[in-house]
Amino acid sequence: SLASTAITCFTRGLDLRRGTEDVLCPANCPLWQFYVFGDGVYASLSSVCGAAIHSGVITNAGGAVRVKTLPGQENYPAVNANGIQSQVLSRWASSFSVTAGTKSTALEAVGRSVSTARPSTGKRPKKTLDKKAGNKDCKADIAFLIDGSYNIGQRRFNLQKNFVGKVAVMLGIGTDGPHVGVVQASEHPKIEFYLKNFTAAKEVLFAIKELGFRGGNSNTGKALKYTAQKFFSLENGARKGIPKIIVVFLDGWPSDDLEEAGIVAREFGVNVFIVSVAKPTTEELGMVQDIGFVDKAVCRNNGFFSYQMPTWFGTTKYVKPLVQKLCSHEQMLCSKTCYNSVNIGFLIDGSSSIGESNFLLVLEFVSNVAKAFEISDIGSKVAAVQFTYDQRPEFGFTDHVTKEKVLSAIRNISYMSGGTATGDAISFTTKNVFGPVKDGPNKNFLIVLTDGQSYDDVRGPAAAAQKAGITVFSVGIAWAPLDDLKDMASEPRESHTFFTREFTGLEQMVPDIIRGICKDYLDSKQ
């Protein structure tokens, strides 16, 4: 039987690689932190163990689960079952189902991975909440963009403050937990306090109570754009590698346009939520500039980022579901991560020593690296050039903006066969492939794949590429000389140089290359 893999409370369907996988869920996962979409068939964004408890396959005592990958679908329903409220998702690219795993595989897993499976003592482990540190499972930098317009008025403004205060307290603010700040939207936006000003819930609560009502038009678009651009700077207390979130509270509708602000927020890697209260009535809709204002502003219009409350009265029951959303980081699709903020150029040796069948293994390696990234018009991008003595651009960064198209373009690369001029090829790629994107927001990477000695100098062209802001990884196979590989690679050279005797060894390198790209991406952020 297949041995099972021990997973964590937060492992999602999309984190599993095989079509059918036996996993072992730990005991005592915090039910309220589970993110589950659908019922019976779950969107692959869902927590595997959460889905297993939701569907009744296991209890919170954990256990063995068999996960089967299924195609994506539309309209995953929200159903409350076994203590977990699943959520609606309008569509997702893949799904999974869960059934009971077998006991024999579960025992093997316990023997294999003690680190993630907590020993069961029969007692629940005490949750030690270090008050100052806050809720470490919800690290986020959050701006509450509150409505201070005449639309809302003084009385409802106070109810809004109470609600925001309750959300702030439940988030578990602390030095290692979420940090929050407040911006008031009215005629002109005003930052009331920054992320760095307070790291204790008591202080935040006090600061919220003290806020004065400004009045004026509800120029929410203007305030959203301003907040996305100005609020999350390092000097204002934003932290590296932590999701940035703006929660926009809107009473009624905005007086200005939200579309441009939504685009700016996405470019800045900010996840925008809209909490709309007292939606415009049918009679009022005539006064609304753009009926689709919510969909234009939110991070993604998949239903997750919009939240509605009928009035400002009796809002306590709305606090917890909103906090759950703000704490589910795997859902923050607009955050900048290494997966959605890099350009990866592949420089592929097409020389005659490789041969047709090995060339296919090289293309498979390229596909497997590309597959790990979120390729889209506002996400990561991939390009490929094949070289012998000459260079042949296969496709550029802007030619294909979906992962499917990129993968099919890689499959369609035909083998050139010829000599090896790697230096020239690097110069060509730096100028023609990276040149057009050098001022873009993404970080640039070049992966050079070669199986032999270059006829020309590689050191000069590689240094020029690095000077142009491109991080170079060299991947050598068979007869590629180590000196050349090291000369091409970025510093520190050891971690940017890869070598395998056999073409079949390329497959093992894929995770290390992806990890290397992510490490460089994180190191480069500030």
From TrEMBL:
Cellular-component GO terms for this entry: extracellular region
Compartments in which it is found: Secreted
Keywords: Disulfide bond, Glycoprotein, Repeat, Secreted, Signal
UniProt xrefs under CDD domains: vWA_collagen
Domain LCCL: 3-96
Domain VWFA: 141-326, 343-513
Region (Disordered): 111-132
GO biological process, one term: sensory perception of sound
Keyword Disulfide bond among record annotations: yes
Coiled coil: none
Gene3D superfamilies: LCCL-like domain, von Willebrand factor, type A domain
Function: Plays a role in the control of cell shape and motility in the trabecular meshwork.
Protein name listed in UniProt: Cochlin
Taxonomic lineage from the root: Eukaryota, Metazoa, Chordata, Craniata, Vertebrata
Recorded name of the encoding gene: Coch
